[in-house]
Structure formats: C-alpha cells, structure tokens
Amino acid sequence: MRGRPGGRHRSLRSRLTTAPGGAMTQERQQQEEAEAVVLVYEPTVRDMASALSARMRATPSGRRTLRLLLSAGVLGISSFALLMALGAMTWQLWLMLGVGLLAFGCLYLVPQLQARQLHQMAATQGEFRAVVDDGGIRLTSRDGDARSKWGMFARYVETDDVFVLLTGDKHGVGLMVLPKRGAAGTAGVERLRTLLESRLGKA
C-alpha cells in the first residue's frame, strides 16, 4: 500500500519554512543578549541581607523604623547609664538596659533572619541568569522564567555588593537583587549602573 505523496510534501514544506524562522529567532535572541548586560550568579545570604538593609535606608517606612529603633536603643542605654550613676539599682534599671539592647539587636538580627528566609527559598533554584536590556529584565532559574518591564520598578539602590531594584510603594515591598559579581567584570557593572540610572534613577 503506497503512502500519500501529499503528506510527504507538506512535511517537507513545513520543515523548510519553520527552520529559517527558528534560526532567525535564535540569532535575534543572541544579538539582544550581546547588547544587554548578562549576570550569572547563585544568591547568598549576604546578598539578601545587603538588599534588605539598603531597602530599609531607602524607603520612607524603612527610615521610620530605623529611627525608631535607634531612638529606643539610645534612650534605653542612656537611661541605664543615668540610673547607674545615681545608684538607683531597681528593676527599671535592667528594663532600660533590656530595651536598649533589644532595639540595637533588632537593627542587625531582623535583616539577617529575613535574609536567611529569602535565601532558603532562592537557593532551591540553583543558578540564576539575569538579562538586563532596554526593555526590562529577564530572570531565569531552574524552574522559573520571568520578564519584568522597567515600569514595575521606580528606583534602585546600590551597595558594595548588589544593585537593588525597588517598586514605587512607600514600603518597597517588591524588590529585585542583582549581585555585582554576576556581571562580566568591572565593565559589566558600569554598563548595568548606566542602564539603571537611565531607566530608574537612584532612590
């Protein structure tokens, strides 16, 4: 029994027409990546802690929290020192000391605890790849592939280790962390900084 020649012809035409399109798509993707800034990295606890601390300093709600904790810490320690100087060894003395130490402790411990939680979630995805270009940021990992346009973010913060992209709300709830070590050397970091300044501007 002979097969229908039309089926073979359609299959051949399909291969001939789709192959060039696929090649063009691949070439276009390679060209876009060549013009973009590419970062490849595995997130660390230090990345997350640096980002969270930067967000606290850059957002209105974060600055209020920071001032509150600093004020409580200074007040508690100062009250403890004053009561000690007056010889007033009462339970209020130790309460003031506890309040001061707790406030100062929160400045360090809270970001660290949050950073460890975020890292635990991110670490399961292994290596991350971020492609940053004029259209936005494409972030891929083991199980994820997402693209964010620049309109999603309002500003960025830079630390010694990372760039932190923040959403426009007063809390900066949404953030994206881009570790500098993931870029291709100093030139890659400079290109990324220039791109962020042109699209977002510093917080």
TrEMBL record:
Residues 133-196 form the YcxB-like C-terminal domain. The keyword Membrane applies. Keywords: Membrane, Transmembrane, Transmembrane helix. It comes from the Bacteria. Residues 1-28 are annotated as: Disordered. Residues 1-13 have a biased composition (Basic residues). Coiled coil: none annotated. The chain crosses the membrane at residues 65-85, 91-110. The keyword Membrane applies. This is YcxB-like C-terminal domain-containing protein. It comes from Streptomyces pristinaespiralis (strain ATCC 25486 / DSM 40338 / CBS 914.69 / JCM 4507 / KCC S-0507 / NBRC 13074 / NRRL 2958 / 5647).
